[in-house]
Amino acid sequence: MNIVALFMDAFSELAQHKLRTLLTLLGMIFGVGAVIAMLNIGEGAEKEAMKMISTMGLHNLIIEAKTFEEKELKEQRKHSSGLSIRDGEISEKSLPFVEGFSAQKLIDTYIIFSAHGKSDGEAVGVSPSFFELSQFTLAAGRLLTKHDDKNFFQVALLGASTAKQLFPDGEAVGQNVKINHLWFKVVGVLKAPFLKKDAFQGIKLGGEQHQVFVPLKTAIHKFPSKALTSEVSSIKLKISDHVDPIDAAKAVSHLLQRRHNDVDDYNLIVPAALLAQQKQTQQIFNIVMSCVAGISLLVGGIGIMNIMLATVLERTKEIGLLRAVGATQKDIQLQFISESFTISIMGGILGVIFGLILSELIALYSQWSVSWSLGAIVLSFSICAMVGLIFGVYPAIKASKLNPIDALQSD
Hints:
single chain; alpha+beta; 12-stranded mixed sheet
């Protein structure tokens, strides 16, 4: 029998029972759609996680100074002077896998304004290597340099949002801004990172859009700090590519414990560990969603078997007539398998469309990232087709084994 003719006959037969066919298709549609939506969301989440981690640096370690109440801080300072530039310098000299470091100092900011606007952001002092380790890119002007830091220059680099607030109608580079009591000349503006979320695994991200960056030594020497606070707010260490950051964090932690006399006055953040945790969480989500989608496809397969068994009973005389005029058992099997396969193909196509629409709706209402996955479409469609074949085999065999004489005499 011609394959094309088989599928044309199968489609014609299914079209005679539109409602029954549609109800059978629903299980396949929902199953395939769920698989595609789940995999698309999973891939989108992974790409978004990589984008967010890149702002911290996958091969970086971040050391943040803890904040304490005044009484507790006084007790801490009896044993540890807090986080300092020296911590970064010692780490770079003592640990061979540390290739560089940058430091950051949060300035107690009460006002930032220019002749054209006012900003609600904050000022931050950073070492020259800060931007290299954080992988930020310029939109205009230049970055802060070692020369700026060494000479305590009053120059500033603006985040994207801060630049729009301070200079809504014009070029920011070359203009002046006032931070607290000091005027600074703008030398550059950063590009926005375009992150959909402002936090990853509890770590805040994207804050540089609302910040004004000044040289670290300028921040330390020209802005007053509260008594007993750490010299710097955070330090970022660059780890060699051939060293696992999670293993490197153990050595860094041991060094800091010795330097701080075992005082727990800092947090050590490992972006690589955060990414691994995110992937593990995503994997659990994928497994759960795959099980749900698999159950839906299983129900759809049972629906196909059910309708095909009902079809065998309805068409018993037709089967007997076909056998009487020379059709073999194999011909009968092919006819019924082609019908179940046609149902699964139709369900797969409609399921793909439903899955793509579902992905967009979830992304729209939940603000989750979605990334189209050709592999997800092929995988779900293939599983759907396989389910149609498997669950169509038994009804086809049952139909082919009917006795032609009994089939012709059936009511």
